[in-house]
Amino acid sequence: MKTTSTDDWRDTGMNFNEYQLLAEQTAIYDNEFYPVASLMVEAAELADLFVKPVLRGDAVDVDRTKLVSEAGDVLWNLAVLLKRNNIKLEDVAIFNIEKLRSRMARGVIQGSGGDR
Questions:
Q1: 52-105, pLDDT tens digit by residue?
Q2: In whole angstroms, what is the distance from residue 45 CA to residue 40 CA?
Q3: What single DSSP character describes residue 110?
Q4: 71 CB contacts (<8 Å, ≥6 apart)?
Q5: 36: Cβ–Cβ under 8 A, 6 or more apart, which residues?
Q6: What is the sign of the dihedral through the CA atoms of 96, 76, 113 and 109?
Q7: What domains, with CATH codes, occur in the chain?
């Protein structure tokens, strides 16, 4: 993979591994627990975009820019957390799809709980 400081990836797209390497370059913090704690906070902020309007009885139209921004924060924290644990984001994505396909094939995709 070539890492570039330009915005060429905007035209050609970006894969999980490229994103993870670029995210890691911006991972500057003092406490190694930061991406774990921040992941929880950012995931809650993402969920709040949907939950708060429903609880208030408002329209559920979510601002696309806010949604993309919060989802990006979640993705950054996850990518950094995994990288610091020597796990490729791409491997997680592949593992997850394989797990979901297995559940679909076995007819347990709508089940509850962990291993099914």
A1: 888 888 877 888 999 999 999 999 999 999 999 999 999 999 999 999 999 999
A2: 9
A3: T
A4: 46
A5: 77, 81
A6: negative
A7: 31-106 (1.10.287.1080)
